[in-house]
Amino acid sequence: MTHSVFASPSSPSSFSVATTNPRCHYCRKTHLPIPSLPPFPRRPPPPSPSLSWPRRLAASAPVRCTSGLSEMDDVTGSSLFPLQRCKTVHLVRHAQGIHNVEGEKDYKAYLSPELFDAHLTPLGWDQVDSLRKHIKACGLSKKIELVITSPLLRTMQTAVGVFGGDNHSDGNNTPALMVENARKSGRPAISSLNCPPFIAVEYCREHLGVHPCDKRSSISEYRQLFPAIDFSLIENDEDVLWKPDVREANEEVAARGVKFINWLWTRKEEEIAIVSHSGFLFHTLQMFGGDCHPIIKEEIGKHFANCELRSMVLVDRSMLGSDSSCSNYPGKAPGGLDLPSDVAHEKHRTQKNMV
Questions:
Q1: Which Gene Ontology molecular-function terms are recorded (predicted)?
Q2: Which of 44, 142, 247, 315 is 20 to 30 A from 324, alpha carbon to alpha carbon?
Q3: Residues 55-85 pLDDT 10s
Q4: pTM (2 d.p.)
Q5: Of the candidates 117, 51, 88, which has an alpha carbon nearest to the alpha carbon of residue 321?
Q6: What is the pLDDT of residues 290-300, one digit of tens each?
C-alpha cells in the first residue's frame, strides 16, 4: 500500500513528486510549480522517431498540471491517483570521479584540462559495485524498464555498471554496454543482455561550460566505448553546448530540469532509472517541496552523495499522462443488475418526492 503526504499547492499549476522506498513504497508527495509553461489540455501525439533530440523536445507539449486538493486532503495528508498517471523514477548521482577528488583538494582544479570528461576513480567503481548489489538485493533491477543517462563518461560508467548485465563474453553476438578496459578503466566488458535499454539524453547533464570535467567527448568515440547505449537523441557529434567562458546559471539548470521532466511524460515506460549529476539533480529537485513540511522538502531536495539512489513517484495532475490502465477492469461481464443500495435509496426518495 502506498501512502502519500501532500501539502497545499503554492500555485495553481503543479507537478507532484513523492519520495519512496523501493522496498515498501512508502512515499511523500509535494508539488513542482511551473508557472511559465502554457496549458495543454491533453497529451500530444508522440514526436516522430526521426526527429533529433532538440526537435523532439520542441515537439513535445509542455506540461500544465492543475491541482485540486480538498480540505479533506489537508486534514488526512493522503491523496489517491490513478496508477496510469504516475511514474516511478529512480535518481542516481554518478559515482566518485577524478574531478571530485581533485576539486575537493583545490577548487581551482575544476578548471584543469586534465579533468576533461572526468572518469570514475577506483573508489568510484567500488561504489558502483555496492549499488549494483543493493538494487539486485531489493529487487529493483527487475522492475526498471529504461535507464536514462547523461552523456558524460562518469555517468555512463555508473549507469552500465549499476544497471547493466553481467560480464560480456567474446562468444556473445549482442553489442556490449561497455567494452573491456574502456578509457583504461581496468574493468571487464559489460553485457547488454538481461537488462533494460539505455539511452543518453543531453538535458540531464551537469552545469554546462567553463569546467572541462563537464565537457563530453564526441559521440563517435562514445559509440566505440558503449556500443549498446542509444545515442540517437543527441544531434551533434561534438559538444556544442559546452562553452569555455560561460558557466550555466543555477536557474538555467533548473529550467532545463523541468523540460527534462516534461519529456519523461512522452515515454511509455512507467519505471525509469536516471543517472545524472549533483548540480542537475539538486537544482531540479529544489523546484519541489516549497509548500510542504521542511523535513519533506529536505528529503527531496538535499544534495546527493556519490552513487546515491533516491526513488520518487512523479504524478501527472493534468491529462498529459492519459494512457489507459493495463490493470483496470470495467466489470459487468456478463452484464446484470447492479444498482448500489445507496443509489437505489436516493432514487426511491426522489421518486417519492415527485409524487
A1: phosphatase activity
A2: 142
A3: 444 444 443 333 344 444 454 467 788 888 8
A4: 0.77
A5: 88
A6: 767 888 888 88
| Contact call for residues 134 and 155 (beta carbons, < 8 A) | no
pLDDT digits (tens, 9 = 90+) for 91-143: 999 999 999 999 999 999 999 999 999 999 999 999 999 999 999 999 999 99
Maximum Cα–Cα distance across the chain: 90
Q: How far apart are CA 229 and CA 223, in angstroms?
A: 8
The closest alpha carbon to 87, from 262, 257, 314, belongs to 314
- SS3 for the chain is CCCCCCCCCCCCEEEEEEEECCCCCCEEEEEEECCCCCCCCCCCCCCCCCCCHHHHHHHCCCCCCECCCCHHHHHHCCCCCCHHHEEEEEEEECCCEHHHHHHHHCHHHHHCHHHCCCCECHHHHHHHHHHHHHHHHCCHHHCCCEEEECCCHHHHHHHHHHHCCCECCCCCCCCCCECCCHHHCCCCCECCCCCCCEEECHHHCCCCCCCHHHCCCCHHHHHHHCCCCECCCCCCCCCCCCCCCCCCCHHHHHHHHHHHHHHHCCCCCCEEEEEECHHHHHHHHCCCCCCCCHHHHHHHHCCCCCCCEEEEEEECCCCCCCCCCCCCCCCCCCCCCCCCHHHHHHHHHHHHHHC
Pick the catalytic residue: 31, 94, 119, 168? 94
Whole-number pLDDT of residue 16: 58
* pLDDT for residue 125: 98
Indicate the residue type of 269: E
322 versus 80: the higher-pLDDT residue is 80
Residue 206 annotated to the active site:
yes
> What's the grid cell of residue 287?
523546484
Question: Is residue 319 very low, low, confident or very high in pLDDT (cuts 50, 70, 90)?
Answer: low
Confidence of residue 15 (pLDDT cuts 50, 70, 90): low
Q: Quick check: 99 and 109 in contact, CB under 8 A?
A: yes
